[in-house]
Amino acid sequence: xxxxxxxxxxxxxxxxxxxxxxxxxxxxxxxxxxxxxxxxxxxxxxxxxxxxxxxxxxxxxxxxxxxxxxxxxxxxxxxxxxxxxxxxxxxxxxxxxxxxxxxxxxxxxxxxxxxxxxxxxxxxxxxxxxxxxxxxxxxxxxxxxxxxxxxxxxxxxxxxxxxxxxxxxx
Length: 170
Hints:
Elements: H1 2-20, E1 24-35, E2 40-52, E3 57-69, E4 74-90, E5 94-113, E6 116-137, E7 142-152, E8 158-169
């Protein structure tokens, strides 16, 4: 019984130490989005959950909605990503993150020419994300960030993003 009590206390003390570190965060942000070669620009809103696997490795599922337009056409999209981030440089109040992971995107591309709808393309496509981000802690729980990413897809679509984010650690 004593052995069980000692092991239980050791286990519980480990849990109390682990809870003092903030291993999760939620981020939301607004980015400029470029479709293709950059001739179609627009805005993208994203939500991201981050779970730290260690001090330098984080897994981050995210969901985003974007809309781009030119004089003649527009394009809407929604994407879900699952990125793995590595933080090679960490400082007291900031860190730099490099990430990569798979992505699936739904594209609604109602092509128009001279105001007349010629065709409509709505499709899913698979690809991957390459991202570079910087995060700055404002307080113990709140953070702001800046980042960019490139997402090539199997359909030939290329999406590039650059923007800001804010987040909450828990």
